[in-house]
Recover the amino acids of this structure.
């Protein structure tokens, strides 16, 4: 079913956003996040963007101080997920204007709304930035 | 208002958490917030429900429990306003999951929202349903979702499509309702709807063959045309990624074509052109283009063969493999693993590049490449590939050594062309990364060494050299110590030198040095030390000049805090000091370990037997009992000091002990029963050659020993010729009785009809459920023919029916099987089946007997098959007589 989870993590390894598309208990999540973040953060720029962990393949990409990590199953196209991460970041940039860790922290629900418009049940729903953002902008206008 | 529930703003809470310096501070802040949220919940505070849930989501993200907020989500969802619903649904997806009972309560709210007039609210409900719906919800809400697949707004249709995927995964029976609406989505123009519609069709095809056939028939042409339009489409700013229009849609389409083309030549044919076009025309200088190429290759590999396309695909992978971008190399390695099943020749061409990838600095690439190399190995390239891998083992990262070692060992075991090469490679691995080698691997090495009599000397000398330079590798030390114990004299005498060897000068003292160093090393664990003690015991007999020194080392360990070591040391010390006469026969070389038994056990569920308690004595191949050194030595210790009568040799003494167990003996010296019993024991003790038959009658022997050993009551008891007294033996010697009881059965069936020479009986096969004993006889005058009486015993509490015994022998043997006495085997050893076999050996005197057996039977109406190989036929059968 493609994407199993999306994580955003800062340089210190603190989780800033976590969305799972399968059920894990709280303890399992904490352990998984800890292990994956340790693995990914230890890697350097030249190394490839894929890390295998347990039965996941983690595709990750770093933007300034923020790491985007996407866990996928073995059937998924790793390069496409890499492109998806970039699209996610561009979308957030368009909304927040050069998105940073604090934007996500203080607007956690908005970040989730954007992600929700892009991924549902582990599948990509929409790839047009304006389509993704229009419901969010509408809501902003209303409030 | 409650002072606790006034609470802070969301923003302030996040600031407070950010400001925390330690985890403990953070916990304190979170605890306080949770307390105030709970208070607000219990007061049913309307105003801050929205804010509290937002806080809970943040707290949940940090990894704290938030179950108490679940009901709040439901309340928010039920409220009329969009912002409340929005946060309520988000909370629902984050804080709840499909396993919770609470979820059932939300079904009705979702149903209402799916029918709401506001399309954004419909969208929210669809999204939540798509993420968390359970099987019950799927059944309840499928009609609503089906209707929404035709909703006027495409943004709803796309969400309904993904929601459908969840529904048909939960309840595949519902799939057929969705085939038509899904096919309709493929005709859309909106990319989001197409993307999700294509995905839905692929999922429908997986759960329903009806859907698969439908799409094959109706949709392939449309999909191909559509992919062509997309690939050639002009610049579309909204979907453009580095010059390519919507690569995500490309990939989805290629994936659906893969599902439809698999195993269908016609369908594959239809898509050939477009695949070729995508494979050749797509720009490969950007990630997006490569993602499409990668997917295209995967599709070409999966659909029915078209030679030209496959070549194209393998070429793309070759290009990927030589890319400088590590991401591209990674996916190339990943895809080559799939390609190897289709065209291993083409993948072999990239062997050198792949080997380079094993040595990459990037762990992900290394791991993929290693998996791939493992698949690439065959009989022809095993030597060069193994050399490369072992060379790399020296310089690889410590964290990679475990994986690498396991793979090398597996390759070497699987493809080894000859034993000497196998031994050489294993020694290299053990010297380089012995600490990463698993137990079964070095056990296997020992089994191979014992099975190569011409390499014993070579192995022990190589191990001696290796251990000098790599003494810190635990498993290397273990194998070396074991071999030195067994073949130490070959090390000193340089016996059996191969041409390729450099002669070494090793004295007996040097040999003992190695073992002494190993036992004294702080890092050595219990198993290694226990093995060292055994080796020392063996050396003490082989190197009489070092006996004193060895005894000192053993003596030193009598004070060991480890029970196992202490016990061994005390026992061995006693053997060295008090039982000079039997020592040499006790520490004879181990019989050849049976490879079939070992590999069978390795494959089976029984864990490898060489644990600390068993020490380094692997199970003896014929499978009689499981002798550890301890019971044996107990047995000897019991006899204490001067028990053996002056005229009795050690072997006779054992015979004496055993004679007791055999039913009342006649006073004729050549009693076959007694003889066979002895040999079984000797075999058990790994004493190779049986002693010459005693000339005196056993009764005489017993009485004479009785005379001399008045202090030892226990033995007196035992030595009494009346079997009825046996049970009176005390618990102190129970292990010995157990040991002896095992033999009670086998010698009781002497092959007595013939007057010719007698042969020791063997346990030819033994498993948890079954025991097969062979008794032997020969016709006088025809030494090449052997008569075997097989006896089958059922060890399980269930009766076996339809019992059939089959045997096979190599060409130089001829086998004749007589009918069995019965085909029903009573439970728990209450009776047996016997069957006679005749073997004639055309190579009599040159080759020994060997046999494979298969036993079939039914137990509780289930068919059971057991198989084994017998190569522990008594050596005496080979010569004309014992």
């Amino acid at each position: 079913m493609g994407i199993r989870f999306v994580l955003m993590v800062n340089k210190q390894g603190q989780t800033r956003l976590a969305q799972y598309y399968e059920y894990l208990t709280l303890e399992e999540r904490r352990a998984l996040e800890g292990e994956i973040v340790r693995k990914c953060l230890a890697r350097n720029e030249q190394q490839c963007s894929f890390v295998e962990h347990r039965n996941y393949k983690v595709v990750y990409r770093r933007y300034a101080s923020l790491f985007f990590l996407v866990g996928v199953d073995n059937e998924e196209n790793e390069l496409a997920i890499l492109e998806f991460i970039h699209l996610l970041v561009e979308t957030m940039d368009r909304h927040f204007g050069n998105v940073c860790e604090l934007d996500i922290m203080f607007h956690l629900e908005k970040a989730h709304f954007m992600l929700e418009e892009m991924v549902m049940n582990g599948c990509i729903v929409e790839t047009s930035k304006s389509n993704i953002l229009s419901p969010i902008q509408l809501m902003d206008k209303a409030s | 208002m409650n002072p606790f529930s006034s609470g802070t703003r969301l923003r302030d809470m996040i600031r407070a958490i950010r400001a925390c310096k330690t985890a403990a501070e953070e916990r304190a802040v979170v605890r306080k917030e949770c307390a105030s949220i709970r208070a607000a919940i219990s007061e049913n505070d309307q105003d801050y429900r929205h804010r509290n849930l937002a806080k809970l989501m943040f707290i949940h993200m940090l990894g704290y429990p938030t179950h108490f907020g679940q009901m709040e989500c439901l309340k928010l969802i039920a409220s009329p306003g969009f912002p409340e619903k929005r946060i309520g649904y988000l909370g629902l997806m984050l804080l709840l999951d499909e396993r919770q009972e609470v979820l059932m309560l939300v079904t009705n709210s979702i149903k209402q929202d799916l029918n709401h007039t506001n399309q954004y609210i419909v969208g929210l409900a669809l999204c939540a349903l798509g993420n968390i719906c359970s099987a019950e919800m799927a059944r309840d809400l499928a009609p609503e979702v089906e209707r929404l697949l035709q909703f006027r707004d495409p943004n709803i249709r796309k969400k309904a499509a993904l929601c459908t995927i969840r529904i048909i995964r939960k309840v595949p029976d519902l799939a057929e309702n969705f085939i038509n609406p899904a096919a309709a989505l493929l005709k859309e123009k909106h990319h989001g709807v197409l993307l999700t519609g294509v995905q839905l069709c692929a999922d429908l095809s997986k759960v329903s063959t009806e859907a698969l056939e439908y799409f094959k028939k109706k949709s392939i042409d449309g999909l191909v045309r559509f992919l062509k339009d997309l690939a050639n489409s002009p610049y579309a700013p909204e979907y453009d990624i580095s010059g390519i229009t919507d690569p995500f849609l490309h990939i989805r389409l290629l994936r659906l074509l893969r599902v439809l083309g698999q195993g269908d030549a016609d369908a594959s044919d239809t898509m050939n052109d477009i695949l070729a076009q995508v494979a050749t025309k797509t720009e490969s200088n950007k990630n997006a283009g490569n993602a499409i190429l990668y997917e295209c290759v995967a599709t070409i590999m999966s659909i029915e063969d078209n030679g030209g396309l496959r070549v194209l695909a393998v070429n793309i992978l070759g290009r990927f493999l030589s890319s400088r971008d590590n991401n591209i190399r990674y996916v190339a390695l990943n895809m080559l693993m799939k390609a190897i099943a289709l065209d291993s020749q083409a993948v072999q061409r990239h062997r050198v590049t792949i080997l380079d990838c094993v040595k990459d600095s990037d762990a992900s690439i290394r791991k993929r490449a290693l998996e791939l190399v493992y698949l690439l190995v065959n009989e022809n390239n095993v030597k060069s590939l193994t050399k490369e891998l072992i060379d790399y083992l020296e310089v690889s990262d410590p964290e990679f050594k475990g994986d690498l070692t396991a793979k090398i060992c597996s390759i070497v075991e699987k493809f080894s062309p000859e034993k000497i090469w196998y031994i050489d490679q294993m020694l290299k691995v053990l010297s380089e990364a012995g600490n990463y080698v698993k137990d079964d691997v070095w056990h296997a090495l020992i089994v191979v060494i014992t099975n190569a009599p011409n390499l014993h000397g070579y192995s022990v000398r190589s191990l001696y050299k290796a251990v000098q330079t790599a003494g810190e590798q635990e498993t290397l030390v273990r194998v070396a110590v074991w071999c030195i114990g067994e073949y130490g004299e070959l090390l000193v005498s340089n016996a059996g030198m191969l041409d390729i060897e450099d002669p070494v000068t090793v004295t007996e003292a040097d040999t003992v040095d190695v073992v002494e160093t190993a036992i004294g090393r702080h890092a050595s664990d219990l198993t290694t030390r226990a093995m060292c003690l055994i080796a020392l015991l063996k050396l003490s007999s082989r190197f009489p000049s070092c006996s004193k020194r060895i005894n000192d080392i053993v003596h030193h360990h009598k004070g060991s805090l480890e029970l196992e070591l202490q016990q061994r040391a005390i026992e061995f010390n006693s053997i060295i000091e008090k039982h000079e006469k039997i020592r040499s026969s006790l520490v004879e070389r181990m019989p050849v370990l049976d490879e079939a038994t070992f590999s069978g056990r390795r494959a089976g569920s029984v864990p490898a037997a060489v644990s600390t308690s068993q020490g380094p004595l692997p199970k003896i191949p014929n499978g009689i009992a499981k002798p550890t050194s301890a019971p044996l030595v107990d047995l000897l210790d019991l006899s204490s000091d001067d028990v053996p009568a002056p005229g009795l040799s050690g072997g006779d003494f054992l015979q004496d002990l055993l004679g007791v167990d055999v039913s009342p003996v006649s006073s004729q010296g050549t009693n076959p029963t007694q003889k066979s019993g002895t040999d079984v024991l000797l075999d058990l003790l790994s004493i190779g050659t049986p002693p010459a038959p005693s000339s005196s009658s056993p009764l005489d022997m017993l009485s004479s020993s009785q005379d001399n050993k008045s202090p030892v009551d226990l033995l007196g008891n035992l030595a009494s010729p009346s079997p009825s007294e046996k049970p009176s033996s005390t618990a102190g010697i129970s292990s010995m009785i157990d040991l002896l009881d095992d033999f009670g059965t086998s010698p009781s069936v002497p092959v007595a009809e013939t007057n010719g020479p007698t042969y020791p009986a063997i346990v030819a096969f033994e498993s948890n459920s079954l025991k097969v004993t062979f008794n032997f006889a020969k016709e006088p005058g025809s030494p090449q023919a052997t008569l075997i009486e097989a006896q089958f015993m059922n060890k399980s509490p269930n009766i076996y029916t339809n019992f059939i015994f089959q045997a096979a022998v190599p060409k130089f043997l001829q086998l004749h099987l007589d009918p069995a006495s019965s085909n029903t085997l009573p439970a728990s050893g209450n009776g047996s089946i016997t069957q006679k076999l005749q073997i004639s050996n055309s190579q009599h005197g040159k080759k020994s007997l060997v046999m494979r057996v298969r036993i079939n039977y039914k137990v509780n109406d289930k068919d059971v098959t057991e198989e084994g190989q017998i190569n522990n036929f008594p050596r005496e059968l080979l010569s004309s007589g014992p």
